[in-house]
TrEMBL record:
Belongs to the cytochrome P450 family. It comes from the Eukaryota. Keywords: Iron, Metal-binding. This is Uncharacterized protein. InterPro entries: Cyt_P450, Cyt_P450_sf. The keyword Metal-binding applies. It comes from Xanthoceras sorbifolium.
């Protein structure tokens, strides 16, 4: 998996191929900010930068945006909500991580149930994204990261037998890190 990430997904050539996305998203951010500009109001860059980052990562990984915006539908709102919940869980204190014999407290507090629910929702979301990618027949030269993973799965290249669950795991790990 490490060689797939280094050689196929995150090579210098592949990262350079996403320059167009970076330029388009940055220009869109500037345009949005200029349209809503009222010189007397303060600027909250937090949400703008989070949105920019999410859009860049989604376009590079999935070939389209998944965020809360125009024309993105329910899947965009779901993905944004999932990312917010994942961020909350990453910052949550898990007693079982520090004192394993008190891990049962995570069940009582509801943390384990929330982790399971969010994981299942991510699993469902990534399954839908993968199914959409497999169903469409793009003859576009520009491949996103999911296209590359699906191509590796199809070809069996790199001596790796990759199934859909492996692809979902790679996508989830890339979102967390």
């Amino acid at each position: 998996m490490r060689s797939i990430c280094v050689m196929q997904l995150l090579s210098a050539k592949r990262v350079k191929s996403f320059r167009m996305y970076r330029e388009e998203e940055t220009a869109e951010l500037i345009k949005k900010r200029a349209q809503s500009c009222t010189c007397s109001s303060p600027i909250d860059l937090s949400e703008l930068l989070v949105s920019l980052t999410r859009n860049l990562i989604c376009r590079a990984a999935f070939g389209r945006k998944y965020g809360e915006g125009e024309g993105e539908g329910e899947s965009g709102r779901t993905f944004k909500k999932l990312l917010e919940e994942l961020g909350e869980m990453l910052g949550a204190f898990s007693v079982g991580d520090f004192i394993p014999w008190l891990g049962w407290l995570d069940q009582v507090s509801g943390l384990d149930a929330k982790v399971e629910r969010v994981f299942n929702e991510f699993d469902h979301f990534f399954s839908a994204v993968i199914d959409d990618h497999m169903a469409r027949q793009d003859d576009d030269d520009h491949m996103d990261l999911l296209d590359i993973l699906l191509q590796i799965q199809k070809d069996g290249s790199n001596g790796v037998c990759m199934v859909k669950e492996h692809i979902k795991a790679i996508l989830l790990v890339s979102r967390v890190s």
